[in-house]
Design goal:
Helix content is 27%, strand content 21%. The mean pLDDT is 94.
């Protein structure tokens, strides 16, 4: 059949690409160019599949901003030649990685679907085959000769989520991810059902892909806990060359009202450090000023992370710091939904 969608499969590492050597019981990475031999079912999909792999597959625990750039460069370099992309990474840091990629591409018009698995592809009870087959099917699904998905998604265990809305919640279950503040974009049952009203629509007239690779990683996540000491907060906020802080507060954005805490926050802001308030809760939103315990944070000018996830907040901060914006613009863009990451 003519005009079959062309899908590029990008393997970076992670459990999905492992096979077990049954003699030694050790896991080793397998050659993704042989994927059609390993999963013959892929031949039934109405698309042509090409593969590219990192020379040295990396464990997701070793993921960093250099690898984000490498993944994004592979997509950017092949963007005109392929209709969709499926990126395989380790699930432990997949929410961080896929969120970062969502910010690195502006005016994305094609699907970039992240997936992986909890068990290796060669395991008898693996979840890898279903995740991979359906991710490729999603990436090549079209309507009126246009891809249905035009954003970065994360597919795992029968659900496609907006990548920058996800959090890994389980290391044991196949249902490893959730998206507490945004419903799935698609669900895979007997039929593949897309929730079209939830999909990201590209901006009118903006169809030139813009690739932004300047990520600043001089950032930190500061998680509050009862009994946190002045010394701990002081040391963190005075890290050399610190540019941004994701402050994980309680509930709807609440923090201690003790003078030392507010003073340290004010001093950090005065030094030009960007501080974003996100909630420690899995779901819900920061509402600055709802309680007295967040009123002062609001008055000193802390950024309201609203219902953004911590994983996406750190990715968005790295991206916006790379844009070298003045403080008021930084605050404006952080509090504005750029890729559907906040409600």
């Amino acid at each position: 059949m003519a005009n079959k969608p062309k899908i590029l499969l990008v393997y970076t590492g992670g459990t999905i690409g492992m096979v077990k050597d049954y003699q030694t019981q050790a896991l080793r990475a397998f050659d993704f160019s042989q994927i059609l031999d390993k999963i013959p079912e892929l031949k039934h999909l109405n698309c042509s599949i090409s593969t590219v792999s990192f020379e040295e597959p990396i464990d997701s625990s070793n993921m960093n901003t250099n690898y984000y750039v490498k993944i994004a460069e592979i997509i950017a370099e092949n963007y005109k030649d392929f209709d969709g992309f499926v990126v395989l990474t380790g699930s432990d840091t997949m929410s961080y990685t896929s969120s970062a990629i969502s910010f690195m591409f502006e005016n994305l018009q094609k699907p970039v679907i992240f997936t992986g698995s909890q068990l290796p592809i060669g395991d008898l009870r693996t979840d890898a085959k279903e995740n991979l087959i359906t991710s490729i099917e999603i990436a090549c699904t079209r309507e009126n000769n246009e891809p249905i998905i035009k954003e970065v998604g994360l597919y795992f265990e029968y659900k496609l989520y907006r990548a920058n809305r996800t959090t890994k919640i389980n290391a044991e279950q196949f249902e490893a991810f959730t998206s507490m503040n945004y419903p799935p974009l698609a669900e895979s049952g007997v039929h593949l059902q897309f929730n079209k009203q939830l999909l990201l629509k590209p901006r009118e007239g903006k169809n030139e892909l813009i690739f932004r690779k300047n990520l600043v990683h001089d950032v930190v996540i500061l998680k509050l806990f009862p009994g946190i000491t002045k010394k701990v907060v002081e040391v963190i906020l005075n890290i050399d060359n610190l540019k941004g802080v994701i402050l994980e507060t309680y509930g709807s954005g609440n923090a201690p009202t003790e003078r030392w805490f507010i003073t340290l926050i004010k001093e950090a802001l005065a030094k030009g450090i960007q501080i974003v308030n996100v909630t420690q809760c899995a779901g819900g939103s920061v509402i600055l000023g709802l309680y007295e315990t967040s009123t002062e944070l609001k008055s000193v000018g802390i950024i309201n992370g609203k219902d953004i996830t911590t994983e996406t907040a750190i990715a968005k901060m790295m991206y916006l710091l790379g844009e070298k914006l003045p403080t008021d613009k930084f605050k404006y863009y952080f509090e504005t939904s750029l890729r559907g990451e906040i409600s």
